[in-house]
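Milestone 3.1: sequence recovery, worked example.
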């Protein structure tokens, strides 16, 4: 935060930047998985007939609602921060640091499946 800058505008700018970075990351993952799958089909047709590509769980991002990944990410972050706060309040000798990989790959994928089965409320849970 710069000196003289409004705290409200700092929060708004930071939040919007985060949303843009998350959208860029999602687009990059989708593009990577799409390109990997297409390039593998060429290999599969010529060298290894009948083979299928083994790709990460990020391949599910394209099959769900566009908001499911973001909902999973945000509610996963909220859950992690709440539990870290609870560990601090209970004076736990161990404190877990929130991780980006579990947020994006675990919570976002679970949210995609939950959103397809039970809607937005299920994705939030």
């Amino acid at each position: 935060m710069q000196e003289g800058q409004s705290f409200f505008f700092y929060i708004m700018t930071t939040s919007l930047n985060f949303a843009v970075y998350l959208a860029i990351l999602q687009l990059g993952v989708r593009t990577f998985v799409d390109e990997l799958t297409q390039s593998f089909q060429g290999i599969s047709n010529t060298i290894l007939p009948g083979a299928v590509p083994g790709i990460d769980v990020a391949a599910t991002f394209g099959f769900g609602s566009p908001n499911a990944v973001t909902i999973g990410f945000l509610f996963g972050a909220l859950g992690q921060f709440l539990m870290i706060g609870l560990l601090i309040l209970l004076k736990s000798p161990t404190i877990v640091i929130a991780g980006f990989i579990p947020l994006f790959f675990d919570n976002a994928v679970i949210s995609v499946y939950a959103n397809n089965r039970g809607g937005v409320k299920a994705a939030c849970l």
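Residues 63-125 form one domain. The mean pLDDT is 82.
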